[in-house]
Amino acid sequence: MTKRYERMQRDFCLLREGGKAPEPDANSPIELDPQSLLTFVVWGDPQIAHWSALRSMRFDAACRDLGNMTEPVDALILAGDITENGLPDEFRMVGEILNTYSGSFRHLLCVPGNHDVRLRPFHKQIAVFNDFVKSVNGGVALEDETRYFHAVRIRGFKFILMGTDRTTFEGAYLSARQLRWLDEQIALENGKPVFVVNHQTLKGLNGLPVTWLGKGKWRGSVGWESDKLRAVFEKHRNVIFLTGHLHYGTSVYNYEDCGAFKSLSVPTVGVVNHGDFPADTQGYVVSVFEDRIVARSRVFGDGKYVDASIANATVEIPIEK
Ligand SMILES: [Fe+2]
């Protein structure tokens, strides 16, 4: 164990035991709808940092809410920026917290965010990422450590996990190979709902540039390949695009129905959210039914769903036949 990790653990324990940790209400845990075909939780940006015990504490509180369930969700999805600096110690902290509550999710699906990849050579960092995923019970690891993109099927539904194809600082580089593969993977579903997870959303979607605090034409989005990615989605139907990166609380911006595809951007679970509803530890609980998908925003650290008066507290996505 590194000295840094010892310090991280010590600071986290001091904070958690200092009486200031959020305590999810054990009387209102997430309940699985018996009619649902699939239920998963999606969180953006835990962004665990070696210098912030506060983020670890928020993430732990959110996980504790999952721990209050009587039966596990099918999957927990981390939509990137799992760590601040991509350090093995930071990933280790995330993994140890997750393993404390691993009985509450059957699978862990992870995509990398810009913070996870930005500081080290691509191939070194992909191994650090994969070692982390493998360390978590239920973690769906990469089979091929030369690329982040891969697909997994859970309860008959395909999840496509994307990721940058080179080291980037803020956006993602999506190679022609990844975009071609994505197109093929979606096509194979023949219109059945497919969940595509990437850290960044598309240019101009989910309130950009407002949700990136008004900066730049492409900033906050996937970047230069945004139009090409959108063109892939527009060839299909019932594509549900799940992203993070914006650190923006539940608001009118989270969800956009773009016809062929639907874009759900989730708040940050670990960092401070912007916007009119900036509560900590937000994310979405998503249930899939025969004819629709229902996504409900939740403040996991409180163990409560977001009040219906907040825009996009509940999102209903019709499944097109
Ligand atoms: Fe990010």
Description:
The structure is a single chain. The chain is an alpha/beta fold. The chain has a single domain, classed as Metallo-dependent phosphatases (Purple Acid Phosphatase, chain A, domain 2), CATH 3.60.21.10. It has helices spanning 3-16, 53-67, 88-100, 114-117, 122-135, 176-187, 226-233; strands spanning 38-43, 73-78, 105-110, 150-154, 157-161, 194-197, 239-243, 255-257, 261-265, 282-288, 292-299, 304-305, 314-318. The strands form two sheets. Strands 1, 2, 3, 10, 11, 12 and 13 form a seven-stranded mixed β-sheet that branches. Bound molecules: fe (ii) ion (FE2). Fe (ii) ion binds next to α4. Fe (ii) ion (FE2) is lined by residues 81, 113-115, 199, 245.
From the structure above, extract its key features.
single chain, 321 residues, Purple Acid Phosphatase, chain A, domain 2, binds fe (ii) ion
